[in-house]
Amino acid sequence: MHLVCDFDNTLFDTTTLWNAWLDVLVSAGIDREEAIAKVEVVIIQGFTLRAHAERLGLGGKELERAVKQSEVFTNEQAPSLVYQDVIPFFDKHKPAHSFSLLTYGDSDYQHFKVHAANLQDYFEAIRIAGPHKLKVSHLSEMLKHTEIPLAFVDDSPNELEPVYRAGLPVKLFRISRPEGRHTDRSHALDGVAWTCIQSIDEIPL
């Protein structure tokens, strides 16, 4: 089996990182609620600290200071933000099974987080989806180049449903972490199109 993994709030506690970034913005004089309200369009385009801060009107030395402060926090804290079940799961199932990462966002920022978390060596490939090439397209491409069965785990039903609707032969898992941004949102296809789990070690390999 080849398991394709989402990153944010699937393998990595991005919510804690997000809250730390909000604290940095507030300390720079940005209203917290405004920062939250204006993030969605940045996420769709591919989130970066700089793009979000600029959208909020931050510039000059304050912008550079905020970005640097968050990057330092990420480098220091990222290993501890990897969910505790993740590395034991990877270590248990390699080399009998293989893994790749399929995450949505800005390529440089996503790679920065993955490397800060020291997870990069577990993956055969790191793929970055975006508005012009969605996760379902990446999975379709992967299926054309392998005969190994694929499974895909993500916390967002918005990413899982297109894979199901496309009829791709991929086993789907929706993981719900306590602090995940999609955790409290039920979906009609829960338990129908995909298996709902709370820990990655519930995936049968």
Main features:
44% helix, 205 residues, alpha/beta, six-stranded parallel sheet, single chain, 9 helices
How would you characterize the overall build of this protein?
The protein is an alpha/beta fold. The chain contains 9 helices and 6 strands, in the order βααααααβαβαβαββ. The chain has a 6-stranded parallel sheet with strand order 3-2-1-4-5-6, sandwiched between helices. The radius of gyration is 17 Å and the shape is globular. The model has no long low-confidence stretch (mean pLDDT 96).
Percentage of β-strand residues: 5-15%
Identify the overall geometry.
globular
- Average pLDDT reading: 96
Low-confidence stretches: none
Number of strands: 6
Helix and strand run: EHHHHHHEHEHEHEE
Strand order of the largest sheet: 3-2-1-4-5-6
Helix content: 40-55%
Cα-atom radius of gyration = 17 Å
The oligomeric status of these chains comes to single chain
> Main β-sheet, in a few words?
6 strands, parallel
What is the terminal separation in angstroms?
A: 7 Å
- Going by helix content, strand content and strand pairing, the class is alpha/beta
- The total of helices stands at 9
